[in-house]
Amino acid sequence: MNSVGEGCTDLKREYDQCFNRWFAEKFLKEDRSGDPCTEMFKKYQHCVQKAIKEKDIPIDSVEFMGPNKEKPDS
């Protein structure tokens, strides 16, 4: 799946590959020694935020999750 911003698609794919590798090789084997993809995620997130702003997509009432964010109670 492509990203919301054309210029973000490569960053998304790189992050997805990093996350999937970490998840399969570390997390599922109970190695919780950290997420090596955090900086890559931040770059991708910044790119998406910029694309959303440029496309004037309203996100005022949307809550985002990411590193260091807790899942909201439902």
TrEMBL record:
Keyword flag Disulfide bond: yes
Keywords tagged on the record: Disulfide bond
Catalytic activity: a 1,2-diacyl-sn-glycero-3-phosphate(in) = a 1,2-diacyl-sn-glycero-3-phosphate(out)
InterPro entries in UniProt: MDM35_apoptosis, Ubol_cytC_Rdtase_hinge_dom_sf
Lineage: superkingdom: Eukaryota
An individual GO BP term: phospholipid translocation
Gene Ontology MF terms in the entry: phosphatidic acid transfer activity
Gene Ontology cellular-component terms listed: cytosol; mitochondrial intermembrane space; nucleus
Family stated for the protein in its record: Belongs to the TRIAP1/MDM35 family.
Annotated protein name in UniProt: TP53-regulated inhibitor of apoptosis 1
